[in-house]
Every structure is written in structure tokens, then in C-alpha cells.
Amino acid sequence: MANTTTVVTTWKNNMQFHSTNPAGELNIDASPEDGGDGEGLRPKALMLSALAGCSGLDVASLMKKMKLEVEDFKIDITAQLTDEHPKYYHKVKVEYHFYGSNLDQKKLDKAVNLSVEKYCGVMEMFRKFADMDIQTIYHNS
Fold first, then answer.
1. Could you identify which of 29, 33, 35, 72 might form a hypothetical disulfide with 40, taking C-beta atoms 3.0 to 4.6 angstroms apart as the criterion?
2. pTM of the prediction?
3. Which residues does 107 contact at the CB level (< 8 Å), separation at least 6?
């Protein structure tokens, strides 16, 4: 049987919704300039968080398996929306930042590549509609 995920999203008031997730809950709202109250997360930006989270989990798991020494790790994503409706992200830049004094760049590159090319399902979904620019940046302390 195929894996299925169910989320239930309920309208609260104005432009605000409450959404369940298998592991928690969140509020979604539009910005005041778009008619909302700004009391929740923005749907399109949530997609970018999902992308960073999905790939980040892969990379963190691989860093653990490879016993890599990394002091800090973050993913910055910058995405461009189309001008026409329906507006969607058509250009997405993903930067993997690794911090540490003993970074194994070759193995970290492998971890990022495995996530980007093989494991991250959200990355694969983004590839269907966006031009992806993947960069890995090392900050040696």
C-alpha cells in the first residue's frame, strides 16, 4: 500500500487557518498587505522550509553516519516568484553552510549531493517546476 499523509486545515477567521501535521500544528495566514492579519506562516514560504528541512534531515543523518565533525550547519534558500498568476517559485537558490575547524569538504559534498540527487523528495518535487541552484559554502574556524 502507498504511503499516505493527511493534514487537516481549518479556517479560523478572516484569512487565518489552523493546520495539523502528523507531528504538530501550525497557523497559516496572509500578510496584512494581502488582507490577512499576519498571525501565521505564509504557505509559499512553508514550501521553502519544507525543502530546507527535508534536505537538512538527509544531510544531518549522513553527517552522523560518516562521523563528520561539523560545529554548525544551516541552509539558506532564496526563491523568486513568477510575475504572473498563479505565482510560483521558478528560480530557487539553496546554500548549504557548514561551520567548523575540521571540515571534510569531500565527504560533506557527498552528503549534500546524495540529498539533492537521491534522497530528498521535496527537492525532487521542486525540480519539477523550478530552476535549482545548489551551492555548498564552507566556513573554516
1. 29
2. 0.94
3. 66, 68
